[in-house]
Amino acid sequence: MEKNVAIVGYKMMNALDLVTSRERLTFDLTRGLFNELGIDRLAVDTTILDSNDFLDGRTISNVFLDPQAGVYMRDESKVEMDGLNAVLYACMRILSGQYQTAMVMALGLTGSQVSPYLHIEYTLDPTYDRQVKLLNELSAAALQARSYLAKYGYSEELLDGVAAQNLGNAALNPYQARRISGISKDQVKGSAYYYEPLRELHCFPPSDGGCAVLLASEEKAKELTDKPVWIKGMGQSIETYFLGERDLFTSTSTTQAAKRAYDLAGVTDPKKQVAFAEISSLFAHQEPLLAEALGLLDKGQAAGAYQVGETAIDGKLPINPSGGPLGAHPISATGLVRLAEAARQLRGEAGDNQVREAGMAVVHGQDGACAQQNAVVVLGI
Amino acid sequence: MGTLEETFFTPTVPMDFVYNYRVGSYVERYLGGFAEKKILGSKCPGCSKVAVPPRMYCGVCNKKMEEIVEISQEGTLENFTVGHVVLEKGQLSPAEKPYILGLIKLDGASSLLLAKVEGVSPAQVKAGLRVKAVWKDQVEGDYGDLDHFEPV
Amino acid sequence: MRNVGIIGIGYTPVFVSKRKDVNIPEMISEAVDNAFANTGLTAADIDAVVFGNMQTFEGVNLPHLWAADYIASLGKPVMRIATGGTTGMSAFHAGYYHITSGLHDVVMVVTYEKQSEGDSQVGLMGIITPELMAMLSAGIDVTGGSGMGAIGGGSAGGISFQASSYLHHSGAGIEHIDAQAALERRNAAKNPYAHLKDPEATAEKIAQTPMVSWPIRFGHICPTSDGATVAILASEKAAAKIADKVAWVHAVANCASDATTANLIESQITDPAEQMPAIIASRQAYERAGIKDPKREIDYVEIYNGFAHQALMYLEKVGMCEVGEAHKLQEAGELEMSGRMPVNASGGVVSTNAIGTSAMNRVTECALQILGRAGEHQVEKEVHKALAHGWGGLMQYVTITILGDKPKKG
Fold first, then answer.
1. Distance (Å, whole) CA B100 – CA B115
2. Which of C327, C43, C399, C19 is nearest to C175 (CA)?
3. What pLDDT does C139 receive?
4. Does A80 fall in a domain?
5. DSSP code string of A343-362
């Protein structure tokens, strides 16, 4: 990348029910971010919002959040995908040289306001899938899970282990929504099946949340913080829509997105060079699946790796030390929350979730059934 | 002033919109096939893949798949899941009894078709099972005509 | 900053009320295929795709996921932009930043709308419902004047406040709005891609159409169209290898004010004809483009006018003429294709409105004029620099793009 862009501040909020409105949440996130940085809205040169018209229940959803985000008589655009993609766009605006600072804000009230499952449902082909009515977010994820387990001969125990680890991490994290202290594999296994092999506790919880992040050019970053987190690389890719034509046991678009990000970041051996990862795995099986696609786990070795604690907070390569989306999935914001969590780690502010060595991090966000589209960002300090 | 929860106003806004979608000529032909109890697909002139249901574009080759071919009614169950819930309008509720959804590779097709699988119990179903299409008695050229698949 | 140029444009063969022969992705693929045919490029030449539309009109969430196989995007970065009515230009701006960031060289921007498939009320209800909720929670009487304006008028209600305020400030009359609609429908007759065409349109004929909400007549209002528009953008280096004639982007700008104080309710508090965002965004664009005297330096303008009066109003607001001057220029024939300040030779949005495309069509039409490829609707004067304008949101979100026939220096 021709210039250096840094994350200089972040603010996030998650709960199963935030008891708030979109406007209030927008204000709390952005005003909160400004207060922490000691700036006002005029210090933000451009804003990229990320909210979903369907989930908001209204069209042009961005204009209703502009004033609360401090965008009054100022520059703003809206990405309508997972929030990590909004970071890519904001970063492009700074890299262009046109702007010095860019704020990204994403939110979703899919715990209290609207069912989160409608998000994927409305992405489905209305001329076919929606008429046949067999495909939905959960049945698709279950097919992906079964395909992944069968491919490498893993048992459902892997899912229980991944879920228990994430939920345990989430219990330590005040920024998470679903926090079950003392969570055990047995408790996960005891939750009801949705679509086999996925049980309730293998899946993300409906939750409310949002995140605001301020990006800055190198010169500006130095004025705003003494702990900048640098964006080293970014990439994005997409697969075919048609589930029956995809290899569900892997994620080719994640590998493609990661390659673009790694090339920009100069990462040639992710397993060695990456310290930890924050992955938007909405279901337990997606965490090892996506970690493999990111080159962080060897294919076929996931069960062993999780068993010996390689991916735990104190492990060799911690994955989702924050607890990941099994702790909160504020749709539109999830990938942005992963970025903020990674920044938190890299600044040494992660409290009980702090990984030992935080040098370079991989952040991932997804869109579409079974992660049809994926974005990857590499961060470093 | 009461607590935030007490003073917080939460109106419910039911939004009921009716959309009328053009399915396009490929789905029309697919459903036309159903009226004759046939399963049709489209073939890519570039990679020769056969997509079921048929569609206009192959995204890999960026070519139009204008050749319509008839697919066998028999195939192999490659993947499946057992559903214990029903997801209706975004709301989850327990299913009356567990049901099987399968991704089936029909002989002659490249893409897997998602369909219900009956005639085998959730405990017994396995990948690799050979299955065949079961139609409704009265077909109308509608999506529900192809009712389910069952073991051969 | 890197220079970015438009090297290719593709439209669906027609923009009409109902495309019954194709489904959504099939329709979009037509514009993509046309863009490739017009440039000789193939999918392999495209580094990244930007995609935009106003999704509530079709009831498909993140439609780029379903359309991925039809828009030459598999294995590529795809970004979805959605800002309501201005989506077309916001998506274009995103394509521009993809290239100016230095990360990509050839980017395809895909926009569409297939409004015939939507519930006609869906877009309006999507806007009105939160308005009503906001009014209720603020204790405003929804059965009173502003409430009736919100419920009864929908988008047309607030717009009529805007139009009557504009007439008041500018001294123009409803006959000028009639004349503008007629002018653009006549222009549309020369544009093969326009929807509503009337080579014989006159102000008198427009004046005979039913009054919707004074001063908005039926004849002043845009149609709803099905259609898609694709633009292919390239960096200077890539363009040099691919295209001999390029329409260069000199500046992009955008400004948003407050949706809750710009719309129907507050039309009684603030003035929807004031359009501060248009003033701010256009001045910012001129500064970035190095333009000191737009009236002299801008040769051609495409204004997003879903309602005919907006061509006149925005011409003033973007500084192409003084307040009160637009209708005089119209009377003198200067806004015609043969005039000294031609506007909307394409027919404008008032003749063609597939919403997701409408703001980008303003850019592509400016490009066609600069490239000399507008065929029958090519304006008489030479076009070296052009301004494309888009508005959206609740009449308070404006995007501006300035194009030129040479790359910007410095």
1. 9
2. C327
3. 62
4. yes
5. HHHHTT--GGG--S--SEEE
**Residue A87 counted as domain residue:** yes
C129 close to B13: Cβ distance less than 8 angstroms: yes
Instruction: List, in sequence order, the alpha helices (H) in B15-125.
Output: 24-35
What is the ipTM score, two decimals? 0.97
Pairing of strands B91-106, B74-88: antiparallel
Distance from CA of A314 to the nearest CA of C (A): 34
- pTM summary value: 0.96
Domain span holding position A47? 5-115+206-224
Q: CA nearest B83 in A: which residue?
A: A195
C66: pLDDT strictly greater than 80: yes
Out of B20, B24, B59, closest to residue C69 by CB:
B59
| Measured distance CA(B10)–CA(A101) in Å, rounded | 36
Number of domains in chain A: 1
Which contiguous run of DSSP H or E holds residue B101? strand B91-106
For the domain spanning C4-119+226-404, the CATH number is: 3.40.47.10
Q: B20: which chain A residues are within 8 Å (Cβ-Cβ)?
A: none
Contacts of C286 (CB under 8 A, 6+ apart): C251, C292, C294, C319, C402
Print burial letters for C328-358: b (CB count within 10 Å at least 16), e (below 16): ebbeeebbbbebebbbbbbbbbbbbbbbbbb
- Tell me which residue of C177, C179, C184 sits closest to C163, measured CA to CA: C177
**Whether A115 and B85 lie within 8 Å, measured CB to CB:** no
Q: B4 and chain C: CB distance < 8 Å anywhere?
A: no
| Residue C140 to chain B, least CA–CA distance (Å) | 14
Tens of pLDDT, residue by residue over C137-163, are: 556 665 555 555 555 445 566 788 889
In a domain, A75, yes or no: yes
**Of A310, A127, B56, A169, which Cα lies nearest the Cα of C29?**
B56
CB within 8 Å: B111 and A194? no
Q: Do A138 and B23 touch (CB under 8 A)?
A: no
Helix (H) or strand (E) holding C328: helix C326-331
Structure tokens at B136: 């409704």
pLDDT in tens, C315-365: 999 999 999 999 999 999 999 999 999 999 999 999 999 999 999 999 999
Judging contacts by C-beta atoms under 8 Å, the chain B residues touching residue A145 are 81
Of the candidates A142, A270, A146, A113, the residue with the CA atom closest to the CA atom of residue A203: A142
Strands A360-367 and B57-58, bridge-based pairing: unpaired
Tokens at residue C23, please? 């489904």
Q: Are C203 and C178 in contact (CB under 8 A)?
A: yes
CB contacts, 8 Å: B13 with chain C: 129, 133
Distance separating alpha carbons of residues C215 and C217, to the nearest angstrom: 6
A363 and A379 Cβ atoms separated by less than 8 Å:
yes
Q: How distant is the Cα of C337 from the closest Cα of chain A, in angstroms?
A: 33
What are the CA-CA distances from residue C408 to residues C14, C57, C185, C233, C323 (Å)? 33, 38, 34, 15, 30
Which CATH number fits the domain that encloses residue A73? 3.40.47.10
Nearest Cα residue in chain C from A255: C75
> CA A170 to CA A72: how far, in whole Å?
36
Nearest 5°: phi and psi at A200? -50, -45
A353: amino acid identity, one letter = N
